Amino acid sequence: MVTFTVEDHDGNRQSIEAPDDMGLSLMEVLKASEYPVLATCGGMALCATCHIEVLEGKNGLGDATDIELDQLESLPEYFPTSRLACQIRISDELDGAIIKLRGEDN
């Protein structure tokens, strides 16, 4: 299991525990945890509604792909630590990370 912290749009933080052996994306875990992540493209890196900012723990997550960067750079708010949750797999590298929801909430 991997534990990470999510900061919602109101600034509230909550620890989330997720299995690291099922190949889930961070977006899937956030939706299952009932966070307001639209994910209108279903995890294909086409809509950027699962935009997050990695506040701590970015180094282990690898670099964003060109497709992911194209979506992120089209957003009105884009940070050097911005990522799409659909492109991050739940793994040991996420353990201890702190992420902030940035995508549209519904």
TrEMBL record:
<feature type="domain" description="2Fe-2S ferredoxin-type">
    <location>
        <begin position="1"/>
        <end position="105"/>
    </location>
</feature>
<dbReference type="InterPro" id="IPR036010">
    <property type="entry name" value="2Fe-2S_ferredoxin-like_sf"/>
</dbReference>
<keyword id="KW-0408">Iron</keyword>
<dbReference type="InterPro" id="IPR001055">
    <property type="entry name" value="Adrenodoxin-like"/>
</dbReference>
<dbReference type="InterPro" id="IPR012675">
    <property type="entry name" value="Beta-grasp_dom_sf"/>
</dbReference>
<keyword id="KW-0001">2Fe-2S</keyword>
<dbReference type="InterPro" id="IPR001041">
    <property type="entry name" value="2Fe-2S_ferredoxin-type"/>
</dbReference>
<dbReference type="Pfam" id="PF00111">
    <property type="entry name" value="Fer2"/>
</dbReference>
<comment type="similarity">
    <text>Belongs to the adrenodoxin/putidaredoxin family.</text>
</comment>
<keyword id="KW-0411">Iron-sulfur</keyword>
<keyword id="KW-0479">Metal-binding</keyword>
<protein>
    <submittedName>
        <fullName>2Fe-2S iron-sulfur cluster-binding protein</fullName>
    </submittedName>
</protein>
